[in-house]
## 1
Amino acid sequence: MKRVFNFSAGPSALPIEVLQKASEEMVSYGDSGMSVMEMSHRSSFFTDILEEAKSLFKELMNIPDNYEILFLQGGASTQFSMIPLNLLNNSNKADFMLTGSWAKKAYSEAKRYGEAKVIASSEDKTFSYIPKVDKKDFTADADYFHICVNNTIYGTRFKPDTLPETGNVPLVGDMSSNILSEVYDISKFGIIYAGAQKNMGPSGVTVVVVRKDLIGKEKDFTPTMLKYSIHAENNSCYNTPPCYSIYICKLVYEWVKNLGGVAAMEAINKEKAQKLYDYIDNSKLFKGTVVPEDRSLMNVPFITGSDELDALFVKESKKAGMENLKGHRSVGGMRASIYNAMPMAGIDTLIEFMKKFEQENA
Ligand SMILES: Cc1ncc(COP(=O)(O)O)c(C=O)c1O
């Protein structure tokens, strides 16, 4: 069986153990005599899968009891509308930090429903840093303050100790590309959300963690399917949920737990990222594109400075068993997405290949 090192930004590599377990259970789950894909979402088998997924996620992320965990559809992009529809219910104002394309999309969508203000932006330098902010610029009566915690395309992140201090204004964090990768204090947020397809499972499910007091105050015209209250009241089963995607998430949660939980995952991720950044920082050919203090643990963009060499690198790396190292078109160069499921062997293989490429082309 052929397996490559898959550095895709998303959908991304899943742990091999998870894929193997899913393949064992593909045709008949437990003694149900059917696949998870074939069973009713109201069956006791699926109810158990959903409850187990929820409770494992709660445990792994250390989510306090006053938060609801929802498994929704529509991708993280649907949250860009769902958040303003549900949260813009008082001053009708929200603050945004523009740290990349996804943060900009969240801002553009909110502008359709209320007054959205840009507190800071790093667009002047191709989003290569996280801007410093001054609390006095924040809107004191905003209904929420939105950040993209890890910027998938540009490779920056808000570290757990550099989140903006928003006081009573609920902080909303897009954690699509760094969920379960590092320990964050959930109680600092009003909402976190993440499309599953990078660090948690297949596409098709988006996990939303929302503080309970923020639920139920949506705008009158909010479509039923976009109300947090409907999904909370119906335990994510108001309509048919993405059952199979939720099941794979459950297997991923078990895998993270077996490795020692998110703190253990964080230690592994830091070791993997450090190794790669150290090599890049000492290389004569490759250069990182992000200021060191804001570097992501998950997405590592780098360039050679020559479009021809970048293209050659991507082409040759494929031949060496590494896929999806081409950078996003807005940054160019290369990007290695090294999510939880990327083993250390993948990092070592990449670095060895980079060394050889450097010797041959520097
Ligand atoms: C940080 C971030 N937010 C949002 C999205 C959009 O997610 P979806 O495709 O699930 O709507 C992505 C997708 O790559 C992302 O990386």
Note: The chain has a mean pLDDT of 98.
## 2
Amino acid sequence: MTDSFPQILRRDPRAEWIARNRLHPLHDSVMAANGAEVRGPSGLLRKNPHVIGFIGPNGIKRIDRANTSSGLMAGKKRSSTTQDVELPLHQVIDPTGYIVVVPDMVGGRLTTHDKDILGLGHSLIKEYADNMAVVAVCFGESKETQFELAGVDRLIHLSSAEYEGFSPEARLAALQHIHQIYQPKHWLFPDSINGGTDLASRLSARIGERAAAQAWQVSIAQTVCRGASASLDIKRETPRILMLLEECGNAINETRHEVLPLTLDRFEMTDTRIEDNGLVDVDPNAVPLAEAEFILSAGNGIHNWEQFHACAKALGATEGASRVAVDDGFMPRARQVGASGTWVTAQVYLAVGISGAIQHMQGIGQCDKVIAINTDAGCDMVKRADLAVIGDSEEVLQALMALANERKGVLLDDALPKEENHVA
Ligand SMILES: Cc1cc2nc3c(=O)[nH]c(=O)nc-3n(C[C@H](O)[C@H](O)[C@H](O)COP(=O)(O)OP(=O)(O)OC[C@H]3O[C@@H](n4cnc5c(N)ncnc54)[C@H](O)[C@@H]3O)c2cc1C
């Protein structure tokens, strides 16, 4: 009986609409249900190139750069469904060798750059087809809680006071000691201004191994490095020490790792001549927008510009702006964030009165945490944000400024010498 009826295709227009709207809160769950193939409005089966793992016509596999699929982005609505999934444990018993990664750990946490490099460590081990482990060496205070999801098989955490701040001599002594004991197959460092390049260069000079800088395609046989201001590629044999660019590898997102501690026995520390006197106060607006860690960005929803500048000053934030704010003459062109402005990589991007047009979103794709202040709870910036405050920009900035100043007052009090510390 059923054979005489044609197969009726049942469509769900709402699900199709959500599948097309990547910013919809239910987008991920609908896509997960549909997989990589979606039935289009014409009835044709469409392949969805945005699904993680999709292999494009050029043979390149789409990776989960933001790690949203493994539930690593705590606080994001989209990860809540996957957070409980226990990933398979990757164990390395009695490793035959080591690949050592020295992550930057900016702010005490692994950066996306660090995670790319840990991922690369594992792909090199796969190529070697050997029972090797990836070791991470961390200095100073660590706030990282997800080493196991980033691919760390073994961890050397040197947390004593001599490794805090800018301490290249102490760190180099530790790396040299690790080199003598473990004889790593490779040393992997981020090629970055956050310490990776500096340490890698020092280690390279100390142990007499020529490092590869600006490396971005690495196999066990050959390394491709960017040269001449990234205008050409230089191929060379893969050396022991590598300074790696972002996106040199795929961050781990399918396995859990053991993070077993490796201890170092005592070693002789040479005299240190460099003293870290702490950070110097700089004008946040003197920091190039592309390098700023904390950006307060203004859009068309700012109506009190004096207050905005005062708030940026109180928060110690670098100022950014949407194109509308720039076109209207409220902010200089150099402050524009977005596709036709600057692409920023801030740890925190605070968008005030910015709707979240795609051209603006392109510029903030690499930001770690986005906070939106907007009157429109349904705008794209609020959908993208990790935290949103729905309210009038002027009122919220006023409250924020008051809090910042209050906190500064507390810090100033803390900084004042206490009576018992006075020397008679
Ligand atoms: C080729 C091209 C390139 C472009 N490049 C860029 C680019 O690089 N960067 C860029 O930013 N744009 C760019 N644009 C422009 C982009 O399309 C948007 O027009 C622009 O980003 C919108 O800026 P906005 O969000 O500040 O303004 P609007 O879209 O007007 O949004 C204002 C927001 O403020 C909110 N708001 C209003 N009043 C208040 C209040 N009192 N309190 C709190 N919130 C309030 C509103 O709800 C709204 O969400 C480009 C466009 C084109 C065509």
Note: The chain has three domains: 9-79, 89-261, 285-413.
## 3
Amino acid sequence: MENTSQKNVILITGCSSGFGLLTAARLAAKGHKVIATMRDFNKRAALLEEVERRGGEIDLLFLDVTDKDSIKKTIEEVGDKYGYIDVLVNNAGYGLGGFFEDLDENEIREQFETNFFGVQNVTRMVIPMMRQRKRGKIINISSSAGLSGSPCFGAYNASKWALEGFSESLRYELKFFGIDVLLIEPGTYRTKIFYENARYGRNFYNEGSPYHPISRFMESRVKDYVDDCHKDPEEIAILIENLIKAKNPRFRNIPDIETQTQAFLRKLLPFNIYSMLIHKTIFSRLKLPEDEAYQIK
Ligand SMILES: NC(=O)c1ccc[n+]([C@@H]2O[C@H](COP(=O)([O-])OP(=O)(O)OC[C@H]3O[C@@H](n4cnc5c(N)ncnc54)[C@H](OP(=O)(O)O)[C@@H]3O)[C@@H](O)[C@H]2O)c1
């Protein structure tokens, strides 16, 4: 059962590009009250152009998910204008690349500050508004990286796995108050997360690192994979729109067939076999130097 006529007040984080931008523009064109937030107004042009192109209106507000004052100010502004928030889309995030030994603790903590604590920071300030009205949906953008580990992206994996665990627990806690918590777990979509917004650890390019040849391999492997990826990121905006409309939406939502297959195989296969498949898929073309460092006896 869908309630298609309902227009909602929807707050979205990270709307300067990618899924956030497309979702904000799509939902605004459908007549929802969209509070599109971003942490850098210098990047607002792309969103405003897309909103104008599709027709619709948004409120554009500043919000950095790691800056609690900015969240408080924005939520207060929304409270003053609308009095409530129906839907929160926790979308802001980035992916840190680098092998564990090449990452320092601060880099990993920063990854968590955005992808995990950032979600909690915003969610914590939105829940009371939803609880008062006994309704609301919190949609957390996780990732296929929250379902399956991969080399070189352990920090990103860990932040999204943490988000998965948090979301599952929060879902039970908020059910008492009529608030639904949902997860979206996309595979790879070609957005700025892999280009302008890509982040690698400081030691990722360190030629002295024992991981250096594997890092170089991974960098080009990821680039080739992403360049070759033709899925439309609008699929995520459509999925979010459908989850907002749905009366009883599923908790876990995997939009793409690749990730659906991966999740199925991970459940079905013994982990040793599953991880061997992943290892072979990623590293089949890796040629390591004939160096003693890589000879396993
Ligand atoms: N694309 C994929 O293949 C994929 C797959 C699975 C999951 N995801 C997830 O989808 C979400 C959106 O990613 P995307 O692909 O749309 O990438 P994107 O185009 O790089 O967009 C990321 C957005 O997050 C914002 N952001 C980063 N740190 C922030 C902070 N501290 N406060 C507020 N905003 C912040 C960025 O703002 P700035 O422009 O200011 O940096 C940008 O607006 C992320 O959570 C990502 O992990 C993406």
Note: Strands lie at 9-12, 33-38, 58-62, 87-90, 96-97, 136-141, 179-184, 199-200, 252-253.
